[in-house]
Input
Amino acid sequence: MGKETKISWTSTVHPDGTVTPGATWNPWMGCTKVTPECANCYAERDMLRYGKDPHKVVRAKDATFYAPLSWKEPKRIFVCSWSDFFHEAVFTQDVLDAWEVMRQASQHTYIILTKRPQWIEDKLPFDWVGGWPNVWFLISAGTNESLVRFWPILRDIPGLAVKGISMAPLLENLNWRPGCSGIPDWVVVEGESGQNRRLMVSTWATYVQKVCARWSIPFFFKGHIGNVHTSENEQLGGRVYHEFPRVAQQ
Output
């Protein structure tokens, strides 16, 4: 957790082939489970390994909270990899302080995944009008139930530069029709991690990729098994899909 991470969708590949690793940033830690996808939560597992209470939401120490201000080279940053940025237990002042960090360290791109999209509008900065192009929002939905529950909320929030869907872990074959439910800016797919991981059938991911291709939606396949960084694991149908939202190329 910190300045560099192996999470593939945070990395930046430059035209000359060099790679800038992304980062994770946890201004607070701890969460509570809200969907079946949470059952084998990697954050809970990791926090227990480090001797932390995964169910108690606490603000990080200042060195961590303000870390992005000291990272001068632009990075893609996964925000709250050990929590949910929009968790109802987070104090309003902490949220405002985190937005101020993002405002000041605007050279970075911040990727926020949430299972609580109903709180997004209430927790945006007071001067959000027009949005910030360097802040991307994704709902986490690996089942049909979560997709139907969360995506329409995110879809209908105005002023967000990127609205995406993280289907990680993907736990079933999704009955997904973007033409009817709205077209996201980005889709990420991955299988579950850990010893108790539930199987992701490759055809489920292939279906999502084909839907994305049909609707010209950037598709990022992280891997069949979460947290496994091999070329074989990251291939779907014999190729690697590492596509990003078009705003990233502007």
Helices lie at 42-49, 62-65, 92-104, 144-155, 178-181, 202-214. The chain has a mean pLDDT of 93. DSSP finds six helices and 13 strands in the chain.
